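Moderator note: this is an archived Q&A kept for reference. The question asked for a predicted structure of one protein chain; the sequence and the answer are reproduced below.
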Amino acid sequence: MRVVYRGLAVVAAVVAVAVTLTVVLFPSEPDEVVARPVTAPPAAALPSGSAPVSGSAPSAASVSVSPVPSPSRVSASASPAPSPGSHSPTPGASLAPGYTAMEALYADPRVPRLTRDVKRMSLRPTGKQVIKDKRTGLAAPTLPRPWRTYGPAPFTSRQVLPPQRGTKLRGMFVTCPLPIMEQESPRDTALLAARWTLNHHPEGSKISWLASQPVKRGWMLAYRVTYGRHSSRAAVVVMDGGMSKPGLAFVTVPDSQRKHWRDIGRAAAGVRVLG
């Protein structure tokens, strides 16, 4: 009987140890943080046209080196470039592939179409004094006082009106080599040049045409630039001065100095090729 009792005691002891291990290793209330399986973050949507992902798992090197793109980046890369005839691009933004300079011009809401009903203006040169711009091969008329010559940079010649209180805008008459790509037609080149001059007007400026006509070895455009409640009058003359690229003469006068608007015609009429 002693042997039987000892055997039962040993069995009881083994059972007790087994129960203890079960309670310790497998608790009835599992820790959610430990027990919950760790799942990978959802994969970002691939841009259209991307190669499909193979069924094999990515290598550790590819995971650590290639970051997961943010949704904003993915959507930006997935957006197709607009076709030349579609909605206009944002002003000032770089051109999408496939756009020509003239297609970008026609898509720009700041610049209206130049129609045949835009009239010519009388261009009567006055005065004999000129500023000789050898970089462009052009001569720019010296405008009467209070216009005065000013440091030309970043242009090659510059005349300005005195500054006005309460505004940074003032009249300016400059010449420089053509800052945009020359087109087959001088008229088209002048259109692109007028659009370029919006860089020198307040943000949100828009053009409305006042005059358009050929000049000797080039083209002239006169226009109004509106921005909010104010406006400027301006003109560009694109002329071949015999240099590697045509020369540009650009004059603009804000409405705060409107009494000098008559000088715009003088400036445009007096531009000529250096002889």
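Archived answer notes: Strands lie at 130-133, 138-141, 148-149, 157-160, 172-177, 206-215, 218-227, 230-239, 247-254, 272-273.
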